[in-house]
Amino acid sequence: MSEQEHKDIFEHWLQQHQALLFKVVRAYAVQKADQDDLFQEVCLQVWRSVPRFKGASAVTTWLYRIALHTAITWKKKVRRREEQNILYVRETPQHEIPPQKNAQLEWLFSEITRLDKIDRSIALLLLDGFSYKEMAEILGISESNVGVKIHRIKQRLTKRAAENQKNHTYGL
Amino acid sequence: MDFKDLQKVWNQQTNEPMYIIDQQALYRKVRRRASQADRIARTNEWGMMIIAVLTSAMLLWIGSDTAYQIVASVAMLGTGAYVFWQRRLRLASLSQQPGSILAELDQAIANANYLVRFAQTFVYWFLLPTALVTIFRMTQREVDPWRWLFVLGSFLLAFLLVRWELKCKHLPRKQALEELRETLTKEVA
What we know:
The structure holds two protein chains of two kinds. By secondary structure, chain A is mostly helical. Chain A contains seven helices and one strand; from the N terminus they run αααβαααα. Chain A has helices at residues 3-28, 32-49, 59-83, 103-114, 117-127, 132-139, 143-166, and one strand at 95-96. The longest helix of chain A is centred in the N-terminal third of the chain and has 26 residues, at 3-28. Helices cover 83% and strands 1% of the residues of chain B. The two termini of chain B are 26 Å apart. The mean pLDDT of chain B is 76. The chains are: A mainly alpha, B mainly alpha. At the A-B interface, α1, α2, α3, β1 and α4 of A face α1, β1, α2, α4 and α5 of B. β1 of chain A pairs antiparallel with β1 of chain B, so a sheet runs across the interface.
């Protein structure tokens, strides 16, 4: 694969599937600077994955797998860095985040970020309509394990939504 | 409210651009970071190979043509060849398609284990014995002080570099990956 082909595929993926990458980034990084950091890391891994993509799975499945794996590993690295109190200089952000207009969506993202990092992956895949089988393939765990986790996530999210509705804290 | 309502909320974002990306700037940055990471890996591998070849040459250069020196020199060249082979495997693995996140993690853990074992084996079963035997042999004959300095310095530098890499990079990385795997595979109670 030539450098130009590599670049073209990367840019095409980024253009077509940026929403997918943003979802993962938003679910794993809350602060804007962290989102910048993670987004760059995800893009780096996506760029590296271009020559490896043979079309055996859908591009969305492939990108989800890369983005989730990167996000989970990144989260781990950030936590360790915070524990060690290491200060580091962040690179200049390359993208802007307009203010979120959708309060319901904002609430949903905040609830997803409260889940542990593996459940977050499952919640994202679930909300994006992936099947149990696809989720199990992406994560490498059994379908029954995915099923149990999904049951728990659904219960938690619907319970929290009901509580919020009751308290009128968001306008569903 | 049920989960379908949450899914409707989620689907609202599909057509909403959340970020504005400067694609060219991002591409340049990604490209730079990728080359940086590759450069570090390449430097590491080439560094090990050069150390092996230089040590091999140094062993032959030190003194008499004993069997020890020939064997040790060949063993060092073998180490260099081993690193070269591992490098080939690493480059080949880059073109392989990953399975699942768990499979990728397993692969990463296997790589981390390999690096830990390699560093430990290199220090305790090769560098240290080679250094001890070399120093012992140098004490048996008249050797220039600067040659002493060069030999001791080379062994010390190699030892410190390998130990530093083991403690600061390979072991923490291995531990983090194993914890991550445990979290991923943890059975739901």
